[in-house]
Amino acid sequence: MNIDGLILGALVLHNFGQCMPNLCPEVLRVLDVSPEMLSGKWYEVKRAYFPPENTLSCSEFYFDEFKIGTSTSKQFQIKISGVLPFGNWKSISGVAELNEKSLQRNSTTYYSHMALQFRKFHQIDVFVMDYVANKYLVLYSCWQHKTSIISFGRIGFIVKHYAWILSRTPRLDKKVVARIQSDLIGQIGSSIKMYSQYGFHFGKCLHVNETHNE
Fold this sequence. Notes:
Blueprint: H1 3-18, H2 35-38, E1 40-47, E2 57-65, E3 73-83, E4 89-105, E5 108-118, E6 124-132, E7 136-151, E8 154-167, H3 174-188, E9 195-196
Antiparallel strand pairs: 1-2, 1-8, 1-9, 2-3, 3-4, 4-5, 5-6, 6-7, 7-8
């Protein structure tokens, strides 16, 4: 290829990168979220790869609502605690913010948007895909980013899928988990990969968070 061809190729890539297409799937089922839905402790049953949590197994989530807030948003401190490969416990902390009020039902305020921010990791927008009170919560996020390399078959863009299946109790029926996974794949596609909460941990979780028939 001559120099003119190289210059033309660079211009095409540059112009292509200026306009970021929406490469995230159009999720059909998204629920509004209330503070009451999140508050308190959750046990992680399965998750898609998430860099801040990538060495943790047997993870537990805890959402603690900040006392301060605004008339249009609510903030939570979120802490994820889990087991490192050789048995030590580690916690990571971040902030979850609910904003864009969607509706008021009785005394409960619902929000259409939730953002998560962990230290040294970019903010992600998170959607509630499924929820049953006092049972389970399914969270999903799609993040896309411009890059100078060819990745995942797309020039100039990286797309990441993050997801969590959380349970209020240490045990969640495996049939429920299978249905949730099937629903995620149906809406997002086969690119979403869910992994057991055991991850790299050599042995069972202290809270015996195994998916099984109760």
